[in-house]
Design brief:
The protein has about 100 residues and is mainly beta. It has one domain. It contains no helices and seven strands. The protein has a seven-stranded antiparallel β-sheet with strand order 1-2-5-6-7-4-3, with no helix packed on it.
Amino acid sequence: MYHRKSLLLIGILTVVVIFSSVQIANAVQYLPLWDKSGYKIGEYGTVTVQDYKQNTNMQIKNSIYVTVKSNSFEHGLTLHLLETEINSGVFSGQIGF
């Protein structure tokens, strides 16, 4: 099962992030978390995911992948999220709009 979260970009398009490697049952908060509610063309958005079960190696920064889709780019692209600190279970990455 996939979990989806939409983000409305101001007057431009809607972006949906789909992640299959992160299960909502394992998540601390509703996922993903964006750094703000809307973006303009040329800005970068940060996606942050908290999932302690994806912290598979406590000695290194782990990584996960999410798929970012929009209403104008339905095939989407894969976004790599890197653990923010060793053994944190918090993953973050940026995407340009």
